[in-house]
Design a protein that fits this description.
The structure is a homotrimer.
Chain A (H helix, E strand, L loop, with lengths): L16 E3 L4 E2 L2 H10 L10 H6 L9 H16 L3 E12 L8 E13 L5 E11 L5 E12 L36 H4 L13 E3 L4 E2 L2 H10 L22 H11 L1 H4 L4 E9 L9 E13 L5 E11 L17 E12 L1
Antiparallel strand pairs in A: 1-4, 2-4, 3-6, 3-9, 4-5, 5-6, 7-10, 8-10, 9-12, 10-11, 11-12
Amino acid sequence: MKTNPGRFFEDYRLGEIIAHAVPRTVKMGERTLYHALYPARHALHSSDEFAKTCGLPFSPLDDLIAFHVVFGKTVPDISLNAVANLGYAEGRWLGQVWPGDTLRSESTVIGLKENSSGTSGVVYVRTRGLNQHDEVVLDYVRWVMVRKRGHGPAPEAVVPALASVVAPDALPIPRGLDFTRYDFALAGEPHRWGDYAVGEKIDHVDGVTLEEAEHMLATRLWQNTAKVHFDATQRADGRRLIYGGHIISLARALSFNGLANAQLMVALNGGAHANPAFAGDTVRAWSEVLDRAETPAPGVGALRLRLVATKGAPFALRGEDGKYLPDVLLDLDYWALVPL
Amino acid sequence: MKTNPGRFFEDYRLGEIIAHAVPRTVKMGERTLYHALYPARHALHSSDEFAKTCGLPFSPLDDLIAFHVVFGKTVPDISLNAVANLGYAEGRWLGQVWPGDTLRSESTVIGLKENSSGTSGVVYVRTRGLNQHDEVVLDYVRWVMVRKRGHGPAPEAVVPALASVVAPDALPIPRGLDFTRYDFALAGEPHRWGDYAVGEKIDHVDGVTLEEAEHMLATRLWQNTAKVHFDATQRADGRRLIYGGHIISLARALSFNGLANAQLMVALNGGAHANPAFAGDTVRAWSEVLDRAETPAPGVGALRLRLVATKGAPFALRGEDGKYLPDVLLDLDYWALVPL
Amino acid sequence: MKTNPGRFFEDYRLGEIIAHAVPRTVKMGERTLYHALYPARHALHSSDEFAKTCGLPFSPLDDLIAFHVVFGKTVPDISLNAVANLGYAEGRWLGQVWPGDTLRSESTVIGLKENSSGTSGVVYVRTRGLNQHDEVVLDYVRWVMVRKRGHGPAPEAVVPALASVVAPDALPIPRGLDFTRYDFALAGEPHRWGDYAVGEKIDHVDGVTLEEAEHMLATRLWQNTAKVHFDATQRADGRRLIYGGHIISLARALSFNGLANAQLMVALNGGAHANPAFAGDTVRAWSEVLDRAETPAPGVGALRLRLVATKGAPFALRGEDGKYLPDVLLDLDYWALVPL
């Protein structure tokens, strides 16, 4: 067999380090296409001049470009035979990605737990994205449910202890970041860190209808190879399952309207792809302020935000049974940096 | 309210200057995507080498990229609650946009006139696009019909006096432009300025069928946020209204076939989005030579051109009632620079 | 007539050299979009760092980008009135294309043969793609069936003698290429040149469903102007015919899964677009190893590969009548460079 059949649950060993293939040099073309695929308008990632007034040498690539590139590399080794992408934790954007950087990914298996059915199991990995200087630019934990190849005995169950939220003092701050000369008019909204209250909910108002061509362009750009995103013959109904990261980027971009000053994502506390998304769906987003924190950087505060993507009405999340409502696509929990 | 509800007619004041948000650094990726979205083939915007033989340091970004970026920034402040985009006048591309430039927009309210219905009014703005050196790269007047929020009294009507055409001696010429070494074979057609007669009409022959994914990619790339272009739930028929600028770029690109040497757009005399365009429409274009002028630049003449985009037969424009025929999408009046 | 009606069979003269219009500067944006349009993952074209370990200064543009750009320029002169694209031969990628290079194309008419029907004829051209230094980067022969304008007498039939395969000692090797430090883990597969046997067949497993927006974006990016790819009114069934090169790139990208180390295409021995492809088709690919050869470059071997794109099952190619099966879209014969 010359082709990659993907790994099954039995193929993972606790502590194993997997070096993922196909490093990727990202340049300005990635940003251009990102801004064509999503209604991304955060000024720090749109304008070199704006980034300079924030203490950066020029505009870094959007945080989620780094996420998608790093994530995409893991797919052939982690999620080709995955039944479900179950969760994220302890994600931190530890460095900016600049045009011309070359990214690669490696994952460490930190947990394994067979399901009671005996036909699948949960694999926990800590994935690191590194640049050409071997600097870690992104670090996060993900767990997926993976099919078993056979019916062999279960390994000893190891479930890692994961923080439910990245602590404020562990938030990474881009080197040089300084919001004391921040231009709110150019950024698009006047709301400062202090204008957001814990518990506040924001309806981001706008909606975007999904197209097959768009999500496939995006998913290929990140070199994500999962068949279900590209091959209409994989499902009986002929629909392609949209890469969950496409919805993350769409929701984050939509959140500009009300959170235009939440310029940088610096930590990913958790996230659930609540329901699958398909072409034709019209996606809207709303946010909830979960927490606030100060940072040591001048003029820079942090907001912990819930970001929900939905096909339905804002602010509805779970039913009486505690389960996500059928219209909810994404429930993401992250920290963003915001001017004071 | 953290989100932007858009301005209503009452929110504009004569003389007010609006600094539009989200500056944008444009690079070569924008050109690449532009050439994927439209069948653009004008050699000056395709080849650095060709641009050098025309006296430029290298190939500038397509004129309409500048237009779309500058226009897109005005949408949240000018046309979010617009009922119709009524017209353009006095447009001039005053400077070239080079890869790496950062553009921002500002608009001055130069006219206000409430409609007799009392439910809307016409807002006239002069919009300027500026680069990071505060040089104006584009200047144009646009007027839109905007809904009123309430039923308050009408402001005094002020309608600006606008030139029906940019005078030939006011046409901006890119610094260094010289067509005396122009290579007609590489450009694709032998027709010189002198080969075009006033009154001549050209059928550009080719047609392009519109796709939802394409117009949305384009419209997002220009950071244009008007809901109707992205959200299929905004109309009862589930169709998305295509950004009028998408049709301008498509028609201009199609006009290569017959006007391959009309290399640069330098002035926009006027324009009407005669009817809306939707995915599935097949768009064709035809042009009419309206005027000719000499310029002080070596080897460089100017043609005033009517550019019409249509779903129907060429050269048909208005019905017996004087109104645009239902198939006509665009009627644009511009000046282009052409080798003598 | 200002527009280009295309050439008819009578318009070609043996020995005539046609300088094709619209030179094109290609940069990193072209690579980005290429990787969004096709699931391209070969590491040499994905990572500057990987390319450096292979002896190159950085990552060149994908071989098929050069092919498409050079080919696209020939369309207005060669295939606008073509009935069919009949074959390729003697193709060689003689130089790498680097970001910032400007490409142009010229073709020499090397054969002419009227068909017995008297309504069309076969035109053979040798096309060369040149960069801004007048270096040939690509050279190939193509023959197409072109309609006759009238019923005039047939020219003397001249059919060029074409090699059925590029000889191993004529394979071009990129300057500096050295696979002795090749990183198989980063490249994605462990299979070396010696692991492939003549006659071996590889099912590349993955499938991609075609979308109208995607093939039009691609075809426009290469400035290919053939109406049938863009205009849904050209066919009674309203479908757009997909540019054959789109299928070549798609199949080549899919072949990563099993041929991840076939990093560079260096020669095109032949190829047939067996059946047309349309939006909605799900395309899969399989390869057959036709031959193996050594090269003088350190650590570098060559594989001659048949690459087949199909809507059907792998390894089925022709029916009992010797004709391509209806599901087969492409049968390509090329040489690739592979680490020893």
